[in-house]
Amino acid sequence: MKLKITNIRDRNDLAKERVVMKVELGGNLGEYLLIQSSYSENSVTNGVYETYWFPDKDVSAGDFVVVYSKTGINSEKPFNGVKSHFFYLGKSHPIWDTKDRAAVLMHAPVWESFKPE
Fold first, then answer.
1. What CA–CA distance (Å, rounded) separates 84 from 16?
2. 3-class DSSP state for residue 29?
3. Range of the domain at 71
4. Can you count the helices (H) and strands (E) in the chain?
5. Is 30 helix (H, G, I), strand (E, B) or coil?
6. Into how many domains does the chain fold?
7. For residue 116, is it within any domain?
8. Hey, which residues does 72 pair with through a beta bridge?
9. Which CATH number characterizes residue 67's domain?
10. Could you report the per-residue pLDDT of 54-70, keeping only the tens digit for each?
11. Spatial contact of 40 and 64, defined as CB atoms under 8 Å apart
């Protein structure tokens, strides 16, 4: 599985604001997290503002993955032999409204969690 961010479109417009990604090699989308981080001096920082862990879903090479900031229902739509997969963060305000924010895509096929008792 390989996924690549192509753009953040319509920043500061909640109705349209979205991160667009393209699937370069198919697989399970649930291995990825999209993180909104701060950006300073030409690099991302360790500041994390939003995190979206994709649900388990098989996607194919050439498909598009779109994450809207607004509320909506996850869906997919075929177009010219590929699919666009739509996901929603459920925010009531734009989150890509300043230039000091970066979209970071993390591939995490192996992870561990711990819940204290």
1. 15
2. helix
3. 2-107
4. 0, 10
5. helix
6. 1
7. no
8. none
9. 2.60.40.1260
10. 999 999 999 999 999 99
11. no
